[in-house]
Every structure is written in structure tokens, then in C-alpha cells.
Design a protein that fits this description.
12 helices, membrane, about 240 residues, mainly alpha, 2 domains
Length: about 240
């Protein structure tokens, strides 16, 4: 029994400018949209975390909270993860050049985010810097994931120069999550993955909806039929749980 396919554009017309850009977004500049998502993922959360740290140093009440930081980073995780990109490259055939672009975009996003935070909270940052100077170089630092740590470290070097490099601690903070994520992937594939699991009908419905996207012309979604779908979690891939 055939099923009528209804596209969103059949129900809601958009201005021509938006429609024209959407077509380009799905074709010639699709790479830009991917990198934008990766960069935005690194932007999210940095401001909340910076304000929380500044609030603790300067004893400012209500500057931020652990809950706010957690929610902010959760939104960022929905968009991208640097270590997951590396894992996909090594174990799931993710294109290496595309992966490198993703990681560069993540680091660049973290770099820009930290510069924006500095501009926004410069007064508080300078007050915190003055308060920390008497404590000397032994003040504890912050460990973040690779994208935010490397991007943030580069931003600190841009603002304060080489004294902000962080020494050996910088490499430890920036790179720890990568081997940890790779190990987690290996453990998952060996001990938890179940390829014989039955795919629920609702999951198949979601996959078929993606396959019928107008850009694909109703053809099965695969890297061969659409080079834009060779990225993380492309719609032709059934998740193994």
C-alpha cells in the first residue's frame, strides 16, 4: 500500500529568500552548516562556566550555578563532541578530512567563545586576576574537554601571552578525554553492543521519514546516494544498542 508523502513546504510556504538559501544550505554550502554546528557547540556553556568561576573568586552571589553550567554544556553536547569525532574516524569510517574540519571548527568555536567572554566580563576578569596574583602560580586550574580547553588556551595566549600556556597541565587537561572516549568505545563495541537486537517499528519509521526527504527524492539515504550523509550518525545508519 502506497503512502502519500507530505512535505513541510506543502503546508507552509516560506519567503523565496529563505527557500533559496535552504536549497544551497543542503547542497553547495552544506559543509559550512556542519562546521557552524560544531563551532556553536563549543560556544555554548563557556560563558556560564566563566561567570561561575569569577563569582566564586570575587564572592559575587548568583553569578551562575552548577545547574546552569550543566544545562548549557548539555545543549552543546547535543550538537557536537570532539572526542566522538575522533572515535567515528577510527572505528566507523568517518571521512578523515571531514573529521579534521569538525575538530578545527570546535577549537575555533571555543577560541571565539573565550574571547567573547573576556570582552563581556573584562572588568570582573581583571578584578579576579588582581585577587589571584597574591596566591602565586600555584592556583588550581580548570580541566575541560579538548575543544574548549585548546580553544580557551589559545584565547588565553592571545590575551596574556606565554605565561598563560599552562605547562604540562595544559596537555593533560586538553587530551585526557580523547583516550578515555576511545576506551569507552572499545568497551561498548566488545561488551555492550548487540547487532542482533530487533529494530522497533518506531525507529524504522524515523529512518524511512529521513529517506523520503525531498532532497533525496525518496531514494534510500546512504553516502553513495548523498555525499552529505557520510557524517556522524547519517540517516541511513541503524543505531546498534
Amino acid at each position: 500500500m502506497s503512502t502519500n508523502i507530505v512535505y513541510l513546504s506543502d503546508l507552509r510556504q516560506r519567503p523565496r529568500l529563505y527557500t533559496a538559501f535552504e536549497r544551497r544550505r543542503h547542497t553547495s554550502i552544506h559543509w559550512f552548516v556542519e562546521l557552524f554546528a560544531e563551532a556553536v557547540s563549543a560556544l555554548v556553556g563557556v560563558g556560564s562556566q566563566a561567570l561561575y568561576v569569577l563569582g566564586n573568586i570575587l564572592k559575587v552571589q548568583g553569578a551562575s550555578s552548577i545547574l546552569q553550567i550543566g544545562l548549557s554544556y548539555a545543549c552543546g553536547i547535543l550538537l557536537a563532541l570532539g572526542a566522538i569525532t575522533i572515535t567515528q574516524m577510527l572505528f566507523h569510517g568517518f571521512p578523515p578530512l571531514k573529521g579534521l574540519r569538525y575538530m578545527a571548527a570546535q577549537i575555533f568555536g571555543g577560541y571565539i567563545a573565550c574571547l567573547l567572554v573576556y570582552v563581556q566580563y573584562k572588568t570582573l576578569i581583571l578584578e579576579a586576576e588582581a585577587a589571584l596574583l597574591p596566591a602565586g602560580p600555584g592556583v588550581s586550574a580548570l580541566a575541560a574537554n579538548a575543544a574548549r580547553d585548546v580553544g580557551g588556551r589559545l584565547a588565553a595566549l592571545t590575551i596574556w601571552g606565554m605565561p598563560a600556556a599552562g605547562g604540562s597541565y595544559a596537555a593533560l587537561a586538553a587530551l585526557t578525554n580523547i583516550p578515555a572516549t576511545l576506551l569507552a568505545c572499545v568497551v561498548y563495541e566488545l561488551m555492550l553492543s548487540d547487532s542482533d537486537r530487533v529494530v522497533p517499528a518506531a525507529h524504522l519509521d524515523v529512518i524511512n521519514v529521513h529517506k523520503n526527504h525531498r532532497r533525496l527524492g525518496g531514494r534510500p539515504a546512504s553516502p553513495a546516494s548523498d555525499p552529505n550523509l557520510d557524517g556522524k550518525g547519517h540517516v541511513g545508519e541503524v543505531e546498534r544498542v
